[in-house]
Write a structure and sequence with these properties.
Layout: E1 21-28, H1 31-44, E2 45-47, E3 51-54, E4 61-72, H2 74-87
Antiparallel strand pairs: 1-4, 2-4, 3-4
Length: 105
């Protein structure tokens, strides 16, 4: 016998960002480490101003920012173009080698 009642779908804890955007949360032992990660992301994508919060009883920092992937800067633009091309790769699995997907200089 089946039940006529179904459980409601729970609402997400955080609002979903607009299409093309991603909310990023960085948790690090120090504020400087979290800022360095945010700096790299800002060099790759347009982003909102970062917001910092304590990351628990042990110390540390939780940093939030939103990146706009529809407006990538040159480093990300080049990598995204390469990753899209490798996604269309006809080899089994549709992926190029790990070396081809490496981010950085």
């Amino acid at each position: 016998m089946t039940s006529a009642h179904t459980a409601p779908t729970p609402a997400p804890a955080d609002p979903v960002p607009p299409a093309g955007c991603a909310d990023i949360r960085v948790v690090a032992a120090s504020p400087e480490t979290a800022r360095r990660v945010a700096e790299v992301l800002r060099h790759c994508f347009d982003s909102t101003e970062q917001r910092s919060y304590p990351a628990g009883r042990e110390g540390g920092t939780r940093l939030h920012l939103t990146v706009d992937t529809t407006h990538p800067a040159e480093p990300a633009r080049s990598w995204l173009a390469t990753s899209r091309a490798s996604a269309a790769d006809p080899r089994p699995g549709g992926r190029s080698s790990r070396k081809d997907r490496t981010v950085g200089p």
